Amino acid sequence: MAHVDRTADTDRSGAAPADGGDRGRRRGVLARYALLPLRVFLGVTLIYASLDKLTDPAFFAGHGAGSVGEMMRQVRDTSAVPQLVDLALKNPAGFGYAIAFGELAVGIGTLVGLFGRLAALGGALLSLSFWLTVSWATKPYYYGNDLAYLMAWLPLVLAGTSMLSLDAVLHRRRHRQGRHAVG
């Protein structure tokens, strides 16, 4: 009986059936949903990070503990791109709001799957800028989380948000409208 269970998805030659069998169908479904946990994690994390900034008045101050200005001054000399830090220091509050609202837009877009590749690209660019400025001096490099976040965004940049997303709904709607217009 054990032999039959092990070979249920193969023919006498040991080859899998052309349709892949139940196991192949399950693998296909799992593969289509494989990026969903990553998408939910990144979307929720960016929304949380944004709301954390937007609800902390000290964050938008130019000086003082917990302010974006103070953080930028602390990392300026160890940053890979001090020019970017200098640009942020010209208007710390404006830079802080740009980061917070950028994170919110990326988080919502990623979570609901609206313009998924664009949202993921925004997330990757945010992570890249954080890595090159805030966590660049972290030794060894793998202790800094911004590089790991950058790498986590890349599969979503490449694959988009095709499952359980507004992008998929819009794609199906366009496809149906196109079919009706032609036929």
Descriptive report:
By secondary structure, the chain is mainly α. It contains 9 helices and no strands. Helix 6 packs antiparallel against helix 7. It is elongated and about 60 Å long. It starts with a helix and ends with a helix. The N terminus is likely disordered.
Descriptors:
single chain, 68% helix, disordered N terminus
Summarize the model shown.
With 183 residues, this protein is mainly α. 68% of the residues lie in helices and 0% in strands.
Map the helices and strands.
Elements: H1 2-6, H2 21-32, H3 36-54, H4 68-75, H5 82-90, H6 92-112, H7 116-133, H8 145-159, H9 166-182
Helix pairs in contact: 3-6, 4-5, 6-7, 7-8
What separation lies between the terminal Cα atoms? 53 Å
How many strands in all? 0
What order do the helices and strands follow?
HHHHHHHHH
Q: Give a short account of the largest sheet.
A: none
Classification by helices and strands: mainly alpha
